[in-house]
Specification:
By secondary structure, this protein is α+β, with helices and mostly antiparallel strands. It contains 22 helices and 33 strands.
Length: 814
């Protein structure tokens, strides 16, 4: 304003105040009206010529309103401006309320004038609302407001930010936002503000991790919304940032998310140790910087601890964000007691959680284990929680949680969350414990039904592997056996009951016992399987009649093979079982073409026996299907891998077993796995004597002579008398009842075995002869003179055998 003479103000479209449709006036430094607009005349009813040069109090102020006007004037002079609603005297003499905005203006000659812009109350209502909103935002709003200039330096903050940041409002002026809200996300937050400034696209509810300038150890989560400021012409004035502390809300969401994650992660298996590790993985680092899970010693074994047990405890899981902390903690598997007066000991004794938010040097742990405690203090351990693992009113162990890297101590909300974690884990651990108890019992039953050791046998050298299925699957019904037979023969058996669990194990035990009984009857392989088939069908019928709700055992598979080390013949039959594999001395691996046969329990279908001759040193492999299909393989892939693995070379059968296990079972199998290897031996020709005797009265005498001479050759003269009696009785019976040629065979190994074979199928009968009887004492004498005797049947022939023990000095090779 260069002209100092009184004048009227015209409202032009270019005038910035015209858009407000407001009246305007100018006052000089003494409060006289020096300019008056046409709209002021229309608004207040005073003409310019009537008011120019006159004091504003004379023209516009009623006497009763002078105090109100004086207060507004004082504020205007003090702050250089004013905004508000005032009562004004209209030209007609009545009072009207006008909203005013007053601003101080300095002229070129350094004089001061005041520009007044006003509107009637009905037009000023929005102004008043805006003024109230702005005043509320900067003085009373609980949400922080930060106004930044185009250089992103702070121009003004409201009272909420001042309280939040711990500094007076003027202390923030000129700073950059990351200077009082700093942290890992500060640079990213400032980049977002710059993007808002440059693009005009607002940011809404962006959360960031922060720390305060006056309290750098306190971690915060703040929510930021920001928008660009610009005037009506579009000139960019800066950015306004809305800041809210959402730490509690963020932590509540975190806790809920942690509980959901813990519910999904903890208890994925029925394994006690795995469940403990899952608890540790869920809580570190989300809740604690280090954690240990300790269970009372009976729990990992599947047993129930005593109600008042305080130890010993088995360390089941440890986890920490710091490797140095792991070095201080007891390792997994360690068995120990917590010292008295420590927080874990109190937790076990009182059966309640313990919270020590700030560990003091007088804490029981520092007194009980000063060296360990001092080392923990050195790496920053400062807060501790101990929570019992309790289920069904029984304490199974406890969880210790530590903080070292995170500065905030544990608080009650953290303890509540830890109790939720522990409660969920305890139920899973208790379920796993009870399952372990049942699984151990079933596995013990299963192992008790299997041979603990396979004795040495002259016909084969054996090695075996039995691997029970994963605990979650349950024990299976696999079995194997090596059964000595008459004539130094041996039976190799592998079977698999369909299904898992105690019923499968119990059925397996009954079938194994039945196989051993049938084997000692010297039945052919197909005959053994046929009788087993009848037994499985009978067991299934009994089970259905006893308990219809019990899972039904619908069948089993079995492979039964008999090897004779004298003739090198091997007879075998299978009932739905994988065929055996043979590795010859020449290194060739072949799958035996053996009729499959139906699984046991199907009934009504025949089994077939196949015979083959095995060279000395041949390796025969019998196995269950669990070995072949482990690792999601199909049967053909499993057989191919087995053949390539058996090809070796290996120094021993144990090495071969280990190689097969490593190649085909990298992980715990989902089904039981049985592998039985047998390397064939052949009895030396000098230890076997075989003669064909004609069916005539002199056959018994001829047999005695042959036996006496051979025993003398073997140096077994002391057995001549008993052996001649045995042979004489057996040959006489064959001549009397068979009526055909007789074969006599002597076998010398650990025993002296006499065998007499004829073409009769009549079963010999042992009976007690009366004193007046002339006969009937032959088999009775044989039974008395021999250690064992029996009968076996082959194709079109019957063989009666008798065994006598040899002293260690008389055995071959000694």
């Amino acid at each position: 304003m260069h002209d100092t003479s009184p004048t009227s103000l015209s409202e032009s479209p270019e005038d910035p105040f015209s858009i407000l449709r407001s009246a305007s006036a100018v006052l000089d430094g003494r409060g006289r009206i020096v300019a008056w607009s046409d709209q002021a005349t229309a608004l207040l009813g005073h003409r310019a010529e009537d008011v120019l040069g006159r004091p504003v109090r004379e023209v516009l102020v009623h006497s009763e309103d002078r105090d109100t006007i004086a207060e507004a004037t004082a504020t205007c002079l003090r702050e250089g401006g004013w905004f508000g609603l005032l009562p004004v005297r209209h030209g007609g003499g009545h009072r009207v309320y006008v909203g005013f905005r007053a601003r101080r203006v300095r002229r070129l000659d350094s004089t001061v004038e005041w520009l007044l812009v006003g509107s009637l109350a009905e037009d000023i209502a929005q102004w008043e609302i805006d003024r109230a909103v702005l005043d509320g935002l900067f003085r009373r709003s609980p949400v922080g407001v930060v106004v930044l200039g185009p250089d992103l330096r702070i121009l003004r903050v409201n009272q909420a930010v001042a309280r939040f940041g711990g500094l007076p409002p003027e202390a923030y002026r000129g700073r950059r936002a990351p200077e009082f809200l700093f942290g890992p996300d500060a640079a990213q937050a400032e980049a977002k503000l710059r993007s808002v400034l440059e693009t005009g696209r607002p940011v809404i509810f962006a959360e960031q991790q922060s720390r305060l300038l006056h309290d750098p150890h306190r971690e915060l989560v703040i929510s930021i919304s920001a928008f660009r400021m610009q005037d009506p012409s579009g000139r960019v004035l800066g950015v306004t940032e809305i800041v809210e502390d959402v730490t509690d809300r963020h932590r509540a969401r975190q806790r809920l998310a942690l509980l959901n994650e813990a519910g999904a992660r903890i208890g994925s298996t029925l394994d006690v140790a795995r469940t403990a590790r899952e608890l540790a993985e869920a809580a570190v680092p989300a809740l604690a910087d280090a954690l240990s899970v300790d269970l009372l010693e009976p729990v990992p074994r599947g047993e129930e601890p005593a109600p008042d047990a305080r130890g010993p405890l088995r360390r089941m899981a440890v986890r920490s964000v710091l490797p140095a902390a792991l070095e201080l903690m007891h390792p997994e598997g360690h068995l120990f007691f917590f010292p008295d007066e420590t927080a874990p000991a109190r937790c076990l004794a009182e059966r309640r959680p313990v919270l020590d938010p700030l560990l003091e040097d007088t804490h029981g742990w520092f007194v009980a284990e000063p060296q360990r405690a001092a080392a923990a203090r050195a790496i920053g351990v400062h807060s501790l929680m101990v929570v019992p693992l309790a289920a069904r009113g029984l304490v199974l162990g406890l969880v210790c949680l530590w903080r070292s890297q995170r500065q905030e101590p544990f608080e009650e909300d953290d303890l509540t969350l830890a109790e939720e974690f522990a409660a969920r884990a305890a139920v899973c651990i208790d379920n796993a414990r009870r399952y372990t108890q049942q699984h151990n019992a079933a596995e013990a039953l299963q192992r008790s039904l299997l041979p603990s050791e396979v004795p040495e046998h002259p016909a084969v050298e054996t090695a075996r592997r039995y691997l029970p299925a994963h605990a979650s699957t349950g024990v299976g019904g696999d079995w194997f056996d090596v059964i000595p037979l008459s004539g130094l023969r041996v039976a190799l058996v592998v079977g698999d009951v369909v299904g898992h669990g105690m019923h499968a194990s119990a059925t397996m035990g009954r079938l194994r016992a039945a196989v051993r009984t049938l084997a000692h009857l010297d039945l052919a392989p197909d005959e053994v399987l046929a009788r087993l088939d009848d037994l499985v069908d009978q067991l299934a019928t009994e089970q259905r009649q006893t308990d219809a709700n019990t899972p039904q055992i619908v069948g089993a598979t079995c492979l039964y093979a008999i090897y004779d080390p004298v003739s090198r013949h091997c007879a075998m039959a299978r009932a739905g079982h994988p065929p055996p594999t043979v590795l010859g001395p020449d290194g060739e691996v072949r799958l035996i073409d053996l009729p499959a046969g139906p699984p046991l329990g199907v009934g009504g279908l025949p089994f077939e026996t196949a015979e083959l001759e095995l060279a000395e040193g041949s390796l025969i492999a019998l196995y269950s299907d669990g070995l072949l299909v482990a690792g999601q393989r199909d049967i053909d892939q499993g057989l191919a891998l087995l053949r390539s693995t058996l090809a070796g070379p290996f120094h021993s059968l144990e090495d071969t077993c280990k190689a097969v296990e490593d190649a085909m079972l990298p992980d715990r199998p989902a089904d039981d796995v049985t592998l039985l290897l047998g390397r064939t031996r052949v009895l030396a020709a000098q230890n076997v004597a075989t003669w064909q005797l004609p069916a005539e009265p002199t056959a018994a005498g001829r047999a005695r002579t042959l036996v006496r001479d051979r025993l003398a050759e073997w140096g077994l003269e002391e057995l001549s008398f008993t052996t001649e009696l045995i042979v004489s009785e057996l040959v006489t019976n064959a001549y009397r009842y068979a009526g055909g040629p007789v074969q006599l065979r002597l076998i010398r190994d650990g025993q002296l075995i006499c065998e007499v074979a004829d073409t009769s199928s009549t079963s010999p009968h042992l009976r007690q002869a009366r004193g007046t009887d002339e006969g009937g004492r032959g088999l009775f004498l044989v039974a008395q003179l021999s250690e064992r005797w029996g009968t076996r049947y082959g194709r079109n022939r019957k063989t009666i055998w008798a065994e006598q023990p040899l002293s260690a000095q008389k055995q071959p090779g000694v």
